[in-house]
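> forwarded from #structure-qc
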């Protein structure tokens, strides 16, 4: 299976680096980008690179569009002839670009895929929404190299995106806030970062077990009259849960 990625910005670069790190054969990967500087590290690793999107489309069985949403239509115009002449799968990583626009590529199979930047370290939460279904298993297995994958209906992508893609920024903001609190309490910033990052990692690992639920894990560390429940209640008095929900809803395109 040959994979082409058109666009090597934040997300395209994260996916490309994640695939290479996962052991995906460099010779089966093609990257296209107008800026040669972004391509150079991949070329050194044996990946085929080009500034011609049509060339990238010809080389790929799966063609990943990792460009800004407003650039997608022009890229489709560049690759339509190549895509329409063979059995190729088009995958769009562009949030907010619907299946109706992607269908104009004339690809035999089309998917909207929303990973997050943790793809670079193999820990993405990726959503796959079929538009014109082809070999869905092949697409999901490709992105499982980058973390966990969930197949969803296109209509659920906005909700999934605010939780799993925007959610990286929200989680980072919590970590940064907790670090600031640690510094105020006397810890070095580097110490606070290590403590909070490992604590969040541990919390996520606990929830990864079958049957796990956040409230169950919270109950384990909130003894009556204890410090943890005092801290939680202070956060709730300040609107913690409400702020998170409002932020998630604000992150959904109206």
């Amino acid at each position: 299976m040959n994979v082409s990625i058109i666009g090597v910005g934040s997300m395209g670069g994260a996916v490309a680096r994640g695939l290479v790190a996962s052991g995906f054969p460099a010779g089966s990967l093609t990257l296209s980008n107008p800026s040669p500087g972004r391509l150079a590290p991949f070329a050194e690793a044996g990946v085929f690179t080009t500034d011609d999107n049509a060339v990238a489309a010809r080389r790929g069985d799966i063609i990943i569009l990792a460009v800004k949403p407003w650039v997608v239509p022009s890229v489709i115009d560049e690759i339509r002839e190549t895509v329409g002449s063979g059995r190729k799968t088009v995958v769009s990583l562009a949030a907010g670009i619907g299946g109706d626009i992607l269908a104009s590529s004339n690809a035999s199979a089309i998917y909207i895929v929303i990973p997050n930047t943790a793809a670079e370290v193999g820990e993405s939460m990726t959503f796959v929404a079929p538009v014109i279904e082809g070999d869905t298993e092949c697409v999901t297995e490709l992105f499982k190299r980058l973390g966990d994958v969930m197949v969803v209906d296109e209509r659920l992508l906005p909700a999934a995106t605010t939780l799993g893609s925007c959610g990286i920024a929200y989680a980072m903001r919590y970590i940064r806030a907790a670090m600031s609190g640690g510094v105020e309490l006397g810890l070095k910033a580097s110490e606070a970062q290590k403590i909070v990052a490992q604590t969040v990692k541990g919390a996520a690992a606990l929830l990864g077990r079958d049957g796990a639920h956040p409230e169950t894990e919270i109950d384990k560390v909130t003894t009556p009259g204890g410090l943890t429940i005092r801290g939680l209640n202070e956060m709730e008095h300040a609107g913690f849960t409400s702020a998170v929900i409002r932020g998630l809803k604000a992150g959904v395109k109206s």
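QC bot note: The first strand starts at residue 3 and ends at 6. Residues 154 and 208 are 25 Å apart (CA to CA).
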